[in-house]
Amino acid sequence: MTEDNSQELYDRALSVMPGGVNSAVRAAIEPYPFFVRKGEGGHVIDADGNRYIDWVMGLGPLLLGHDLPEPVQASIQQKASEGPMYGTPTPVEVDLAEFVVRHVPSVEKIRFVNSGTEATVSAVRLARGYTGRNKVVVMQGGYHGAQESTLVEGDAENPRPSSAGIPQSFAEHTLPVPFNDEDAIREVFDEHGDDIAAVLTEPILGNYGIVYPEDGYHEFLREITDEHGSLLIFDEVITGFRVGGLGCAQSEFGVTPDLTTFGKIIGGGFPVGAIGGRAEIVEHFTPSGDVFQAGTFSGHPVTMAAGLETLQFAAANDVYDHVNGLGERLRSGLTDILADQAPSYTVTGTDSMFKVIFTREGPSGVQRTPEDASGDDREQGPDSLEEQCEAGCRQNATCPRYDYCPKNAADVKNAETERWRRIFWGRMKDQDVFLSQNQFECQFVSYGHTEEDVEKTLEAYKEAL
Ligand SMILES: *Cc1c(COP(=O)(O)O)cnc(C)c1O
């Protein structure tokens, strides 16, 4: 496998772009990322002609894979050929808005923007404007894009910016808590209840190894926010139109947020974001309300057409059956492989999302290899993996792995993240399997993937683990 062209391109890129990339995570691949020339179905082909099975899928937007079905392609090309945009409304944005409102019960009105980041920025501003309060509760390890209010680390007592360039005085309004921890939420509401504008969370942590909520967690968030007059915002930028099909993750969990942010799939592979929710709240955006919100490219006709045709195609075809079926096959195959080769590791994900988290401990204190476990004086847990979640951790309290499965960001961070990135990722790439850049980013099944892609990938995991 040669990579001369990618190396040459990265060399040029380093001279003209910071870190050689336009989005930080892309440079996580060492020594340099491969440059993609084109996609085909569930595969990508790089600048040197190497072909990979692609489970990154643009980091989420590509539900249909790289070959867009004919009606999707036709609509995109037509919109592009009619002049890209106008600065005045177009019919297709009304069609897409109606589609979302019809399928996502909590969404009565929606505003389209140009990225997931822009969606969460606007949702936080809207929540603050609507409630007249400043504070926002977020989950440690949750990701809501590159924005000031959520690039915050630490805990509710000591929040601090997680990036240079953000004033401490901004971070003070953000209260980070561990995911799946009801007591931590109770504490922040006891302390700051009257000042909390919103709890902002991904329904499933999708940017930190995939962490599933414990049973009842979202119901609890719904109740406590209602009690205190705060809003519940679901960031469904990843899960929207992926988990729970066209009803999104909120339909899967049966919890109705006040606001939902969308991105990724809703633009069919083009730059997009959206904020939807109760009409009475969303109407607070300008011009009907006083929370300023605007964008030159918002509701871009090419994006709207790509999003609409993608979702209509998914509604009319077996897209969710296909991607969720292959996702299940991958996760259960991985569960079997881990039971043999790495019993301390955890398979996570649901629907068409999957990941293996390199957790260090499992039932019986089992570690990856017997050598690692020797001399270990950890208390022995249950010594069988029988009846564990078969196809991805569901935080099932009766599962023998329950005490060892990652419940929050700290648990994922404790995993063998360096082994994942520096050893395992390259071993998969050498077998022509492209996984996400590190332990934290999610992996996605698309409509372009096949049974054969899944089988080859499972074989590669067997070799690489
Ligand atoms: C990707 C992502 C974002 C940011 O979206 P961008 O389009 O990259 O700005 C926000 N929230 C979640 C949950 C995401 O996965």
Number of domains: 2
Strand order of the largest sheet: 4-12-11-10-9-5-8
CATH class of the largest domain equals: Alpha Beta
Q: Helical element count?
A: 15
Could you say which overall geometry the principal axes of the C-alpha atoms support? globular
What is the name of the CATH superfamily of the largest domain?
A: Type I PLP-dependent aspartate aminotransferase-like (Major domain)
| Average pLDDT | 95
List the helices and strands and how they pair.
Elements: H1 4-16, E1 36-40, E2 43-46, E3 51-54, H2 70-81, H3 91-103, E4 109-113, H4 116-131, E5 135-139, E6 152-154, E7 159-161, H5 168-171, E8 174-177, H6 182-192, E9 196-201, H7 217-227, E10 231-235, H8 248-253, E11 259-263, E12 273-277, H9 279-282, H10 301-316, H11 319-341, E13 346-348, E14 353-357, H12 370-373, H13 409-413, H14 417-430, E15 433-434, E16 443-444, H15 451-464
Parallel strand pairs: 3-15, 5-8, 5-9, 9-10, 10-11
Antiparallel strand pairs: 1-2, 2-3, 4-12, 6-7, 11-12, 13-14, 14-16
Helix pairs in contact: 2-10, 3-10, 6-7, 11-15, 14-15
The structure holds pyridoxal-5'-phosphate.
3D structure, described in words:
The protein is an alpha/beta fold and 465 residues long. It contains 15 helices and 16 strands. Strands 4-12-11-10-9-5-8 form a seven-stranded mixed sheet, with helices on both faces. The longest helix is centred in the last third of the chain and has 23 residues. The two termini are 21 Å apart. Bound molecules: pyridoxal-5'-phosphate (PLP). The site of pyridoxal-5'-phosphate has 15 residues, from helix 4. Its cofactor is pyridoxal 5'-phosphate. This is Glutamate-1-semialdehyde 2,1-aminomutase. Its main location: cytoplasm.
